[in-house]
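Posting this for the archive.
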Amino acid sequence: MIFEVFQILIEQVNRHFTQLGLTDAEVVMDNIAFVDGNGEQSEAMRDKVVLSLLNFQEEPSMKNFPNHRVTDVMTEYRNPVVNLHLFLLFSANRNHYSNALRDLGAIMRFFQGKRFFTQANTVFDREVSSMSQIRDFRFTVDLFSPSFEELNYIWGTLGGRQLPSVLYKLCLIPVQSGQVQGEGELIQVISKELKEQ
């Protein structure tokens, strides 16, 4: 679901750019650490806003919910759903600094106006094969402001050169495998017999 969420956000922000008349602005998904390379990957990021996954963390408060499904005669047991928070970095790798600031301002206005995403309030291209299986989703996007020290550490890890950027925390992406861990029959009859000792 991580890739699909990135696709949804890229489509939404690019649509917002178009509505604002920013025809030269575009968000692409890539690893910003490779922006200074010499290959095809760095060329694809030239004069674009790059959306990268910076980190993720599990939501511990929702870890202990039981995860089983009851059918007519059986109970299926699965591992609990892992709920993740994703840290997303929008980096403006634009040729002109003023365009970078303009794009980041537009991104911040977009998420200020829409921070809650569901399948009901979000339009995305369902014709793409990876997106056709998406049924229900629900997540929020909140601005995350690291300290100067944390920001220095982030850009040091990504290669040293700092670009104009904004960091968001995307909350509660459920990750679940369809694998059944165990099955059991339902209790249908309770016996009233007592065993004597």
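The two ends are 57 Å apart (CA to CA). The mean pLDDT is 84.
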